[in-house]
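Weekly puzzle thread! Below is a chain. First person to post its structure in token form gets bragging rights.
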Amino acid sequence: MASILKKAPWWFWLITAFYLLWSIIGCSMYLVEHMMGDAAYTENFGADMLALRDITPWWATAGYAVGVWGGLAGIILLMLRKSLCLPFFYASFVGAIIGFIPTIFDARFKAVMGASDYGFMIFIWIECIFIIWFALKMRSKGIIA
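Winning reply:
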């Protein structure tokens, strides 16, 4: 027997539209960063960032991929009002944590990264926590099932 969902309020669509855009930008940045040739990458991000790209462990890149693509899948499922969005949001958050491990612990990354880079990392984690909280709240209100 299918459950009957409550009507989603207008702000549900506003928040999910924002996160859809956020996720599309994240996936686009992932593709740009990984498909750009060295010359274009250096021109856009600098030689220091190119050196970091070359030493980034595969598992950090995989974390980044899971973070952005999991978030995109999660937000699409949330917009479809499916609770299945939650495992994707959890995976996205774990991916975001794993993707930033070199930034936190590797001295070569610390030497290049500035305060704004660390601020953005924390902002991303806060966004992950918020969307998980939001999806849980929507499930408890019967807006997603």
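Puzzle host: Confirmed. Bonus trivia for everyone else. The CA atoms of residues 57 and 102 lie 8 Å apart.
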